[in-house]
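User: Please fill in residues for this 157-position structure.
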């Protein structure tokens, strides 16, 4: 059983999907699985996903029959299919830093928390620059006791 499942959701994003999946496969935590959860794409996403599945046994592909109109349903599909005790989400237009899975897994095991979160950086493709998203939220390490203590943790990034 893998240590972590990373659910990569995608809708009509065949061009960027490989980069997102490769960022997961290149993690320093090797014992993981990738589930591509396709929200009924009408572009080349199914063909691109098939190539990714063929390239690495850790990659699986799920495709919804009809578009859900949001992120929740494909993420839930990925959760239902996950075989690891821990699940992470990644959008097809995002990438994970090399040690993201290992660092977050170590933190959840160290603290016994129900979930963990790490700093998110946004890449501005026009300039190639990374900018922290909510830098004050991740300015220091801490354990919070509930949503009321830090509701910003639950904002959609």
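Assistant: Residues filled in for all 157 positions:
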């Amino acid at each position: 059983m893998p240590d972590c499942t990373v659910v990569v959701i995608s809708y009509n994003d065949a061009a960027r999907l490989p980069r997102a999946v490769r960022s997961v496969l290149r993690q320093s935590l090797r014992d993981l699985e990738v589930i591509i959860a396709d929200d009924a794409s009408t572009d080349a996403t199914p063909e691109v996903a098939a190539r990714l599945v063929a390239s690495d046994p850790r990659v699986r592909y799920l495709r919804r029959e009809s578009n859900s109109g949001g992120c929740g349903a494909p993420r839930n599909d990925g959760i239902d299919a996950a075989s690891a005790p821990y699940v992470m989400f990644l959008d097809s237009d995002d990438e994970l830093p090399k040690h993201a899975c290992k660092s977050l897994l170590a933190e959840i095991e160290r603290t016994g928390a129900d979930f963990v979160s790490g700093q998110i950086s946004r890449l501005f493709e026009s300039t190639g620059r990374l900018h922290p998203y909510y830098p004050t939220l991740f300015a220091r390490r801490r354990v919070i006791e509930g949503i009321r203590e830090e509701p910003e943790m639950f904002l959609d990034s």
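For context: Residues 4-111 form a domain with the Spore Coat Polysaccharide Biosynthesis Protein SpsA; Chain A fold (CATH 3.90.550.10).
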